[in-house]
Structure formats: C-alpha cells, structure tokens
Amino acid sequence: MLPSDDAASPYRTRMARKKTPIPPAPPVADLGAPGSTHPVAEGRLDAAPEHEAGRIRAVFSRLRDAEPAPKTELVYRDPFTLLVAVVLSAQATDVSVNKATGPLFAVADTPQAILALGEDRLRDFVKTIGLYNAKAKNVMALCALLVERHGGAVPRERAALETLPGVGRKTANVVLNTIWGDPVIAVDTHVFRVSNRLAIAPGATPLAVELGLERAIPAEFMRDAHHWMILHGRYTCLARKPLCPTCPVSDLCPWPEKRP
Ligand code: SF4
C-alpha cells in the first residue's frame, strides 16, 4: 500500500529525477509515424512478432526500472477493504476514495460491521465520492451477499466475484491481481490509453485490450504490468498533455501524436 497523495507519489518523484538507462531496443524509428505501414500501428501484431516482442519487453523493463515494486494507491487492509475501495473508485480518484475509506474502515471494516452501520451512515462516509448513492447501495448489497453466500469472506474465483453488486470484470481483476497475484490485467482508463498509444495491445474495447495484453506481455511482467501501466498513464502518459519529452519509453512509442 502506498500513501494516497498523488502529488507526493514516489513513482512521480523517481520518474522526474532520472531517465533510466535501458537495454538495447529494436529499431523503432518508423513505428506509428503518419502514413506508417508498420504492422503494430495497423493492429497486425502477428506480422512482426520478434520485433514486437523486443520492443514490448523493453517498454516493461524500463517501467520496472522506474518502479520495481508497484502497488495500488488505494489504501486497504485486507481483501474485503480492497474490494470496497475498488467498488467506490469507479469514476473517482484513488485520493478521494482514500479520504472517505480512512474514517469508514476505522469504524467498519467487515461486511457485518458495514451492514450494522446501515446505508444512511455508510452514505455519509462516502458522500464526497462521485456516484455515492449508487455506490452505497452496491456496497450494502455486496456485504449482504458476502455474508449470505461466502461467510463474510471475499471469494477467490472470478465468477463468484462478478456476481457481487458493483463488481464487474475490471474490479474482479484488480482483486485477483492485487490480493492473490493472479496474472490478469484490469483495464481502466489509464491502461486503455497507454496500451493503445504504445501499441502494446491496440483495441477498441477494454476487453479487447485486456485479452491483447495477456497475449503480448511477457510472463515475467504480467503480475505487475497492470500497476506499471496505471502509474505510467497517471503520471506521464496523461490523457490531454502527455509528458512525452520526459517519458522513459518515448523512443519505443509509435503514437503519431506524441509530443517531441
Ligand atoms: S511518448 Fe508520450 S504518448 Fe508515448 S507513451 Fe510516452 S508519454 Fe505516452
């Protein structure tokens, strides 16, 4: 677990301080240039597998050098509190979620305790988070189902997780990866953007990107790939003004609109 202050992120501080020396990378000068016929830019990943494997490996090597042990920035104590935090984080920042869950988990950090708290009091704790009404309802229903079907524990299986209110594939993947280390990728807005810009697994939908990433990312990087891509999207490859001039993978990036 990391502190929740984005501005003080150790990742951002490290990235600003150094540009990591990197292993030799394959030639990439023509990747994604306007008018490029490079297979990655066109989504034909299989057309140059060896070339692409080297480039993608270099991308993750550098991201790993920048943050060898990436973690979620959501603050949690155990599988249950992580699950609640992730449900609350939909379309909200980790910082805003942590501000709400700190006081909440201090008084109720089990499904039984949140059920005892009641929906009105839960809503008071989370009312600073976007969509808090619907989220409070989901958390109450999720707690009831956990108690009823799973003895109050968070299930280990994706299928069981996805039956819980407010829990979709992305949330299930976060829990499976963060708690149990499963090599799965949760595709949020940052992962989606970074994957497409870097042409690691171009895709039009989160599921297409997720499945493409599972095929494209070397096994040694799979467990932490999700966190590296989130951190890269959150602090460097920003949606509107990506920090390309200081980006550690700029020379590996085929995005035609990257900044010089
Ligand atoms: S060069 Fe720019 S667009 Fe490409 S990954 Fe880096 S920050 Fe993102």
From TrEMBL:
Cofactor annotation comment: Binds 1 [4Fe-4S] cluster.
Annotated organism of origin: Lichenibacterium ramalinae
Key word DNA damage present: yes
Known cofactor(s): [4Fe-4S] cluster
Assigned protein family: Belongs to the Nth/MutY family.
Name of the protein in question: Endonuclease III
Domain annotation HhH-GPD: ranges: 88-235
Gene: nth
Entry keyword set: 4Fe-4S, DNA damage, DNA repair, DNA-binding, Endonuclease, Glycosidase, Hydrolase, Iron, Iron-sulfur, Lyase, Metal-binding, Nuclease
